[in-house]
Amino acid sequence: MSDILQALSDYRPYLWEGLQVTLQLSLGGVAVAIVVSVVLGLAAISPLPVLPVVSRVIVEFFRGTSLVVQLFFLYYVLPPLGLDLGPVGAGIVGLGLNYGAYGSEVVRGSLNAVPKGQWETTLALSMSWPLKVRRVVWPQAWALMLPGLNNLTVMLVKGTAVALLLGLHDLTYWADEMRKDPDVGLWTAYGIVFLLYYLIALACSSGLRLLERRAQRRLGLRADVAVTDRATAEAVA
Q1: Residue 163 and residue 113: Cα distance in Å, rounded?
Q2: DSSP letters for 188-208
Q3: Global pTM value
Q4: What is the pLDDT of residues 53-92, one digit of tens each?
Q5: Alpha carbon distance, N-terminus to C-terminus of the chain
Q6: How many domains does the chain contain in total?
Q7: How far is 119 from 86, CA to CA, in rounded Å?
Q8: What angle do CA 162, 168, 172 make, to 5 degrees?
């Protein structure tokens, strides 16, 4: 325990620097990924014939190519073409596009999981497609997609470790630097960084779980579950 406290004291400024970089990539990447997920997911079920095709091409491209190659393209290829995102910007955009492509399938599947009767009701009310999605379908799909988006968020946080390849001094970089210090050692260096990654992922996951419970309460799902559980208990008794 004393070795861990001593390492934290000696490397505190460096770990703080690495934590800031990892948080920037995590929060920025999650924000971009959610936007990409929603846009591509909605496009996948759009009544306009061209939008589902465009969505499918984009999704398959980013799912079918390596995240590392995508990051290298954003960081090394785009600057000579006049678009310099910088290492942090390239990391955020790359992570957001890659995980957003996976997230779009979660959004699409959740929208399609809404009962057909809900869609038919909106037709009977002569609602336009944007209006029926916003007022009727999306609130129900939102509660369904949050668990899947939660998993992708945790995966994205762990995926920020690839920032090391762009020369960023994130937590993984400083873990490797600490490992080289004979006074720190492998277990201490990676143990500290393991804990920091876990706390970041836990914070993100807890936030999305709160959103999930709120969405379920608005739809009355948790209340229905409580009533069902009570009825089951009474039947067993």
Answers
A1: 36
A2: HHHHHHHHHHHHHHHHHHHHH
A3: 0.83
A4: 999 999 999 999 999 999 999 999 999 998 889 899 999 9
A5: 51
A6: 1
A7: 44
A8: 55
